[in-house]
Write a structure and sequence with these properties.
Helix content: 25-40%
CATH class: Alpha Beta
Structural class: alpha/beta
Strand order of the largest sheet: 1-8-7-6-5-4-3-2
Number of strands: 8
Radius of gyration: 16 Å
Bound molecules: D-xylitol-5-phosphate, zinc ion
Mean pLDDT: 97
Distance between the termini: 8 Å
Number of domains: 1
CATH architecture: Alpha-Beta Barrel
Shape: globular
Largest sheet: 8 strands, parallel
CATH superfamily: Aldolase class I
Number of helices: 8
Order of helices and strands: EHEHEHEHEEHEHEHH
Strand content: 15-25%
Length: 227
């Protein structure tokens, strides 16, 4: 289980998207978080398959595609073929989570399950074994720049416990309101994949990415978890 800072391009300057991504690459980042929104599961629309296809031609980063859409099963093939490395779907969004996760694996991608703040960790009880990662939303999905919801900290902790008790090396991703203050809380609780949108792309992208990455590395050093 490695630690990753995962910049969310939702907060990037889309006019300069290539340059923004180059800056996080120069900061030594390995994962890129790509938010897909359908205007139904969440109130607004973001980007789609053509963006992922274009980025794939230009970047070798690990593409972490977070699908905030109803019935995501219909989108899996397209995003896998566009170049996603990880596809995460919401437990609340479709009728057949099991089948969707299996399809993601069949298409050669890692599979993630996302939980909205109000969705209990207990929905994972049976299906957890099919997930490579669980994304704990720490804001309500749909927009960048929101405030971290404090009760989510305990969900992260309980999920890490659940994974440990099953001997599972689960990636736990957190998404929403993560910045230079809240990052310590989620690391302590057991998250290891840290999404940050505004905290990376507002201001000096490269310096922000380096600063957050530095905090994660220091945490790893202090806890002796670096591999
Ligand atoms: C919100 C998205 C997030 C968003 C996070 O629905 O899933 O990935 O970009 O933005 P910040 O880090 O600004 O809260
Ligand atoms: Zn996201």
């Amino acid at each position: 289980m490695g630690y990753q800072l995962c910049p969310s391009i939702l907060a990037a300057d889309f006019w300069n998207l290539g340059d923004e991504i180059r800056q996080v690459e120069e900061a030594g980042i390995q994962w890129l978080h790509i938010d897909i929104m359908d205007g139904h599961f969440v109130p607004t629309i973001s980007m789609g398959v053509p963006v992922v296809t274009s980025l794939r031609k230009a970047s070798r980063l690990f593409f972490d595609v977070h699908i905030m859409a109803k019935e995501p099963a219909y989108l899996v093939d397209e995003f896998a073929e566009a170049g996603a490395d990880m596809i995460t779907v919401h437990a609340e969004a479709g009728v057949d989570l099991d089948r969707t996760l299996r399809r993601i694996h069949e298409k050669g991608c890692k599979a993630g399950i996302a939980l909205n703040p109000a969705t209990p960790v207990s929905v994972l009880e049976d299906v957890l074994e099919l997930a490579d990662m669980v994304l704990v939303m720490t804001v309500n999905p749909g927009f960048g720049g929101q405030k971290y919801i404090p009760y989510c900290t305990d969900k992260i902790r309980r999920l890490r416990e659940m994974a440990k008790s099953r001997g599972k090396e689960l990636d736990i991703e957190v998404d929403g309101g993560i910045n230079r203050e809240t990052i310590y809380t989620v690391l302590e609780a057991g998250a290891n994949v840290i999404v940050a949108g505004s905290a990376v792309f507002r201001g000096d992208t490269r310096a922000n990415a380096e600063a957050l990455k530095g905090i994660i590395e220091e945490y790893e050093d202090n806890t002796g978890l670096r591999r």
